[in-house]
Amino acid sequence: MTGGTPADPTAAGRPGQRVLAAFAERFGGEPDGRWWAPARVNLIGEHTDYNDGYVLPLALAHGVAAAARVADRPVLRVHSLQQQAPVELPLADIAPGAVRGWSAYVGGVAWALRAAGHDLPGLDVVVDGDVPAGAGLASSAALECAVALAWDDLAGLGLSREELVAAARRAENDVVGTPTGGMDQMASLHARAGHLAFLDMRSLAVEHVPFDPPAADLALLVIDSRAPHALVDGEYAERHRSCRRAAELLGVAALRDVPPDGLDEALAHLGRAPGGEVLRARVRHVVSENARVLDVVAALRSGADPRRIGPLLTASHASMRDDFTITVPEVDTAVGAALDAGAHGSRMTGGGFGGCVVALVDAARVADVVGAVEVAYAAAGYRAPAAFVATAGDGARRIS
Ligand code: GLA
């Protein structure tokens, strides 16, 4: 169990502070400013975003800081404290397929902003993050959003949060080339402390739902399964394709358009298509998951005891395991052990095939639940898990 990460990203030893010294060392002098964008954890609503559905993430205290200064040439020079070598890219050379690796997330933002018609100066930038690596907490979206904010400010573009989301998402979809659904960038840019971001991924409307587990003597525990997730990209793209295919066969724009009371009819219709059984399972997940997000939002807004959302979280996990088939044994073990140790609800969060599990637990039981997961992991011979208690933080912003 790691100690709480302070909410202030510029606190001693945190990325917002570390980028200053690193900037002086790598580029000399001071940056024109510093920006911060948080990573996220999704409470519920998985693989619903690219189906025009609903999601309910919150911003973590972890994230990515960028220190940046306008350059005298139209070139991006970027150092990451998580990478060995710096990267230098003339802005005009950045295009889909032309940039690979981590710098595509940063360069991709420049490409997306230029593609939207904005004139950009070159940038000298240092980025640093403290998001647990490979945990599926959307560190890449945090990187995109921190850099998008820096460019917006330094080029005086005055972009709205919606425009920034669009640029960050295009960087990932078009330049990095992963067909992700936009939740992560929206979460990072729209989050509010003490709230969940209830996002309608069709209208892109944002509502902030108060979420304060400690006020109910609860904690939202995040457990990093530490499962190596090698399959992520290919499997994610395959789920995306199956959902599109199912929507096409059903004659709807997106699976969001299948209402819960139309599910049986939709499933019967798909039963006649080739590969129908798999498509039926995928549709069952997406339709039921959208309904669960709405149920969680309604329960939290009703002022009822937040423990009541627990069974919805656990049902979401079963749906991801049995219908969307995106969990792995480590993740299922962590969820099972957390529930056995008294969690009110638990589920995998994020894209799947590893990553993190969330568990809603009584504050007094946090250590017991973490201990139970550790014991179950040791018995199964898995790498020890890591865990922290999440607090809903603020969204991306300028920090100096
Ligand atoms: C990843 C993607 C998101 C979303 C989730 C699954 O995090 O980046 O867009 O699809 O998986 O909910």
Draw up the topology in text:
Blueprint lengths: L14 H13 L5 E10 L11 E2 L1 E14 L4 E6 L6 E4 L12 H13 L7 E7 L9 H16 L6 H16 L6 H8 L4 E6 L5 E5 L7 E7 L7 H19 L12 H8 L5 H26 L8 H13 L6 H12 L4 E5 L6 E7 L3 H15 L5 E5 L6 E2 L2
Parallel strand pairs: 4-6
Antiparallel strand pairs: 1-3, 1-13, 2-7, 3-6, 4-5, 7-8, 9-11, 9-12, 10-11
This protein binds alpha-D-galactopyranose.
The site of alpha-D-galactopyranose has 12 residues, from helix 5.
Supply the CATH class of the largest domain.
Alpha Beta
Name the hetero compounds present. Answer: alpha-D-galactopyranose
Report the radius of gyration as a whole number of Å: 21 Å
Uncertain segments? none
Strand content: 15-25%
SS field, number of helical segments: 11
Quick check: average pLDDT?
Answer: 96
Shape: globular
Provide a descriptive summary of the structure in words.
The chain has 400 residues and is α+β, with helices and mostly antiparallel strands. The chain folds into 2 domains: 15-208, Ribosomal Protein S5, domain 2 (2-Layer Sandwich), CATH 3.30.230; 213-390, Alpha-Beta Plaits. The protein has helices at 15-27, 103-115, 139-154, 161-176, 183-190, 232-250, 263-270, 276-301, 310-322, 329-340, 366-380, and strands at 33-42, 54-55, 57-70, 75-80, 87-90, 123-129, 195-200, 206-210, 218-224, 345-349, 356-362, 386-390, 397-398. The strands form 3 sheets. It has a 6-stranded mixed β-sheet with strand order 5-4-6-3-1-13, sandwiched between helices. The radius of gyration is 21 Å and the shape is globular. The two termini are 31 Å apart. The model has no long low-confidence stretch (mean pLDDT 96). Bound molecules: alpha-D-galactopyranose (GLA). Alpha-D-galactopyranose is lined by residues 46-47, 49-50, 138, 180-184, 350-351.
